[in-house]
Amino acid sequence: MKDEITTVQLNKSVVKALKSIKKYPRETYNEVIFNLIKNAEETKEFDKFVQEAQRTKMKELWEKGDYSGWENA
């Protein structure tokens, strides 16, 4: 089944911004927006990974009672 096509209204400034981040001149706005979405999802996953690593390290420090450096945090 082919994807349905829809019309979306965008401010000219948004179109200009989308045009400026195209990887190549013939890249469609659909591709540009899809890449932005994919990047946002990957960034969110990376943030979750970093937060989990931080949580693990903080738990380790708290269990040892090492609170040094918190006064400057």
Helices and strands in order:
Layout: H1 12-20, H2 29-64
Note the beta-strand portion.
Answer: under 5%
Order of helices and strands: HH
Over the alpha carbons, how many angstroms does the gyration radius reach? 21 Å
- The coarse silhouette is elongated
Give the terminus-to-terminus CA distance: 54 Å
Q: What structural class do you assign from the helix and strand content?
A: mainly alpha
Number of domains: 1
Largest sheet: none
Relative helix content: 55-70%
Explain how this protein is built.
The protein is mainly alpha-helical. The chain has one domain (12-64). It is 62% helix and 0% strand. It contains two helices and no strands. The longest helix has 36 residues, at 29-64. The radius of gyration is 21 Å and the shape is elongated.
In short:
This protein is mainly α and 73 residues long.
Question: Which labels suit this protein?
Answer:
73 residues, mainly alpha, 2 helices, 62% helix, 0% strand, elongated
